[in-house]
Amino acid sequence: MAESASSSANPSPILHLAQDHLLTILLLLPVDSIVSFGMTCKRFSSIATSDAVWESICKRDLGPSSMDALKSSLHHHPIPWMRLYKELTLLHSVSCCKLSSHPDVNSLVPSPRASHSINFVSDYLVLFGGGCEGGRHLDDTWVAYFGNNFRRMPRWQKIHSGVPSGRFGHSCVVIDNYLVLFGGIDDRGNRHNDTWVAQFVTHQDNIGITLSWRLLDVNSIAPPPRGAHAACCISNRKMVIHGGIGLHGLRLGDTWVLELSENVFFGAWSEVVAHPSPPPRSGHTLTSIGGTQTVLFGGRGLGYEVLSDVWLLDMSEGCSKWEQIQYELQNVPQGFSLPRVGHSALLMLGGLVLIYGGEDSHRHRKDDFWVLDISAIPSVRGQQAGRLKSKANMWRRLEAEGYKPNSRSFHRACADSSGRNLYVFGGMVDGLAHPAESSGLRFDGELFLVELLLQL
To answer: In angstroms, rounded to a whole number, what is the distance separating the alpha carbons of residues 443 and 134?
Structure first.
């Protein structure tokens, strides 16, 4: 009784803190701790569930650009930020929409292709190269505007920009307003190891576009020639590549990082040597998940087997380390297969890695969407203390509503600056509906939009 009376007479000092001070403290905590804090008393509950707190949490965990895009989309559909955060964390579906070309009879469109590159930069889609029917390469560059006045009928423009030589299976990443391209294969089977940079400049009112490629000076050190490798950008300044098909068709398992100079006139390649490291492969993906961490998934291995392993590359503090992320295949919903090659994998709004399509070891192409929940990976959770800890398996299959695109592999995809919209172009699709095609396969020239489906 004496202790109880003393406690009542001397309440905890935290009860006397001003609300703005409590807000500052809360934003230093992970989400599950904020929820627990809100359960302690009525006053703390009202603070911990307030819209102001959860708007700040969204800004902290999603980033400024994603928040700007969300506020714009929520302008006519207000929704509590706490509910929005929960929906992103437990996302269960996406919406697909085919984007038809502009009806202008004079408008041109990119030809069907696969193993090309497509990037989102300065509110434009930028498409380059790829392979087409007959095993031929392409060397064209196309752009389409998807800014504030987004239309469901994009107008493609072909850009003459002194492009690199024609190729497919190359990699291309965005660093600031630059595109950085490496490697690829031409229609004679030659593998390349050249590095190109293009600066993308839009002029007033988006009338007129400048995109000029130039060969980057990297001195004498460069990765061996290859194609069908994986690449991504980390730390907003570096390009990382891994694996691919090298000379004589040999699959590679090496990792390289390119660091650009401040003026982007020079670059320096260096090999990342770490043990253990992912086995050699091609047709896999590398996805930057923020900071210095990158996730590798799938691909085709040395024995031509299709893989489903997950690896995490951490390049923090000058010490690069690969770590295989173990998971239980029996936790994957029955009737679905995770191993795949020629898929796409991108970081989306809410810190989710969205994986689409690809093909299995029997060349069966896929049309499924999966979320790799990186918050379920212990090594990532340690770096992202603010994220809500996942209590579920790190794999989750999403339902797709709306338009039903053909199953495909070796397509390419990119996300816009908000991370909510994913653009998919091309790839290899089944040609069985076209009996005249003896191969049973055909190159696709379709562009469609995939949108994270939030209940706004």
So the answer is: 10
- Mean of per-residue pLDDT scores for the chain: 84
pLDDT classification of 117: cutoffs 50, 70, 90: very high
- Separation of alpha carbons 104 and 97, rounded Å: 20
pLDDT score of 235: 85
Residue 82: left (phi > 0), alpha (psi -120 to 50), or beta?
A: alpha
- Give the three-class secondary structure for 261: coil
Distance separating alpha carbons of residues 212 and 200, to the nearest angstrom = 7
Token readout for 146 is: 């998807």
Which tops the pLDDT comparison, 106 or 384? Answer: 106
**CA-to-CA distance for 72 and 50, rounded, in angstroms?**
21
| Cα four-point dihedral sign 432, 437, 440, 442 | negative
Backbone angles phi, psi at 54, to 5 degrees: -75, -25
Residues 152 and 156: their CA atoms lie apart, in Å, by: 12
For residue 11, the SS3 value is: coil
Work out the angle at residue 148's Cα, subtended by the Cα atoms of residues 147 and 153, and round it to the nearest 5 degrees.
65
For residue 310, what are the CA distances in angstroms to 170, 332, 339?
22, 14, 11
Q: Is the previous residue joined to 280 through a cis bond, with omega within 30 degrees of 0? A: no
Q: Which residues are paired to 348 by β-bridges?
A: 352
pLDDT tier for residue 80 given thresholds of 50, 70 and 90: confident
Residue 401 has pLDDT above 70, yes or no: yes
Q: How many CB atoms lie within 10 A of CB 263?
A: 6
Residue 215 CA neighbour count, 13 Å, CB half: 9
Query: For residue range 258-284, what is the model confidence (pLDDT) as tens digits?
Result: 999 988 889 999 999 999 999 999 999
Torsion angle, CA of 333/339/340/345, rounded to 10 degrees? Answer: 70
Identify the DSSP state of 376: G
- Could you say which DSSP state residue 206 is in? G
**Helix, strand or coil for residue 52?**
helix
Rounded to whole angstroms, the Cα distance separating 264 from 16 reads 53
> Residue 417: is its pLDDT beyond 50?
yes
pLDDT of residue 208: 67
Give the chain's end-to-end CA distance (angstroms, integer). Answer: 52
Q: Kindly list the structural domains of the chain, giving each domain's residue range(s) and its CATH number in brackets, ordered by start.
A: 17-89 (1.20.1280), 93-452 (2.120.10.80)
CA atoms 67, 92, 286, 326: torsion sign: positive
Phi, psi for 75 (deg, rounded to 5): -55, -40
pLDDT in tens, 419-456: 889 999 999 998 755 444 445 689 999 999 999 887 65
